[in-house]
Amino acid sequence: MLLQVVSLRKYFGGVKALDDISFAVQSGEILGLIGPNGAGKTTCFNVINGLLPPTSGSIYLEGLPIDGLTPYHRARRGLARTFQNIQLFSGMTVLENVLTGNHLSEPAGVLLAILPLPKIKRAEAQARQQAMEWLSLVGLQGRAEHPADSLAYGEQRRLEIARALAQKPKLLLLDEPAAGLNPRETEDLMILLAKLRQLGLTLLVIEHDMCLVMGLCQRIIVLDQGQVIASGPPADIQRHPRVIEAYLGREDLEVE
Amino acid sequence: MAAYFLHLAILAGIYIILTISLNLIIGYAGQVSLGHAAFYGIGAYTSALVSVYWHFPFPLALTAAVLTTAVCGLALGLPTLRLREDYLAIVTLGFGVIVDMVALNLEITGGPDGIVGIPAPIILGLSFRSQPRYLGLVVLCVLSVLGLTYRLVQSYHGRALRAIRDHEVTAQVMGINTPAYKIAVFTLAAALAGLAGVLYAHYISFINPESFGLHTSILALCMVVLGGMGSLAGSIVGALILSVLPELLRRFHAYQDLLYGALLVGLLIWRPEGIMGRGNMSLKFLQKE
Predict the structure, then answer these.
(1) CA 20 to 30 Å from B5, out of A36, A77, A218, B57?
(2) For an interface test with A, which of B145, B159, B174, B273 has the most A Cβ atoms less than 10 Å from its Cβ?
């Protein structure tokens, strides 16, 4: 068990954004998290990586609790994520963005890093080479020296994924990677995510594009109004009556 | 005339150090400080006091002053750097005013009269009383500070700082210990401002609170913005322009503030990123697109 979420609750005043949620992510799997707007999916991500404190409940990463840890401590433990509204470092180049993902792997101590030692130069060169590899994985190797905010929307999305990959996370949370992409870009994204699956990465993906979710995920969890209403393989989820109800409304509310 | 140019060059060098230190906070880490002159003043006063009253040799006085300002930077940074930008602006502004008031009212700092008779530096038996030598000392300090900060901003620490500037929450999610970085850069910037203060005090040999008030904080801020936030070359250019310009415009003294204002407004309209932009030490801005 890589990640375990145990009866997680997050209330915003009277709103129960997450209402007793429990689920687990197995190492190496791609787990989809779907649900109608306002179901609590992004809140769930924010609580998992420590941006929001939960009202109650616990989260375990590799069997150890991570409750109360700051987001950067959780990153150190192996969590990475992307954001629904892309959040790149806009004052940096494409390459520098990815290099930032390497922050946790930097070898040098605080003072050593500013000395012109061969060891430091080698580490920097190695980090750059590795960053270029991540960039070519997402197909942006030709844009390395461009300012990050000069990229097209779909490219920014892929850059954000490359930056998260550079953290070498144990678990990568992707928050609506296909949001705002055109069909062509969505196709590129699906190819990229399939590559990540082949690399054996563990992904937890929030997504509205059902075609992408059904094609990519081995298992899907459905949230509605802060609760898990179904979980299982894509084929079961598609037929699940409560899922259909959550997305399409109830059958007995027929239009006269 | 030569003495006058040397005088200008020494002051410009001191301002370059002050501007670089403030640029670390504003341009690299993306935080606000409206009271930076306070650290400049603490450095100047500490060094002046230990030299005049306790007859500390210059290297020891310098070390004491830089350490004191670093501790002050740390003490101000620890509780306040969790604040959002606008609140941080108010806190640093308040800090600047408080330090000014303390210097103005304490007996030991000489109140409005300040401290006189600050000795010229003597390092390893070599006196730096003469202007050319003092300029050499200042240039050496500028180069050291420039080398240190250049290495720092080019290292992964520099990337972490810029990440905090661009997107603090995302930086945290990427594993960057944002509070530690902000406090560290604030402390370092304070120490460097303290160094600038020491150089000023031992050059002029007389200090009073007037040199370290709000207008000096604002002047340093203007130097950073004019040259370019997040550009070391920009800090040099900004500090040079704003320390030499008033001298060139001495004939139009009455209109000086007006010209400053016009200069800044013009800059913000035509080149909001500052003269050197964000290009670090690069001359790319000279090339055509």
Answers:
(1) B57
(2) B174
The total of structural domains in chain B comes to 1
CB-CB under 8 Å, B156 with A102? yes
For residue B73, what is the enclosing H or E element?
helix B58-80
Q: Please give, rounded to a whole number of angstroms, the shortest distance from the CA of B153 to a CA of chain A.
A: 8
DSSP class of B34: S
pTM (2 d.p.): 0.89
In a domain, residue B34? The reply is yes
The mean per-residue pLDDT over the stretch A198-226 comes to 91
Q: Which region holds residue A29: left if phi is over 0, alpha if psi is between -120 and 50, else beta?
A: beta
Any domain includes B247: no
What range defines the domain where residue B25 resides? 10-213
Residues B196-203, mean pLDDT to the nearest whole number:
97
Closest CA to B24 of B183, B137, B176, B140: B183
In a 13 Å sphere around the CA of A92, the CA atoms on its Cβ side amount to: 30
Nearest CA distance, B284 vs chain A (angstrom) = 14
Residue of B nearest to A49 (CA): B173
pLDDT tens profile A76-96: 999 999 999 999 998 899 999
Q: What is the mean pLDDT of residues B46-60?
A: 95
- Is residue B60 situated within a structural domain? yes
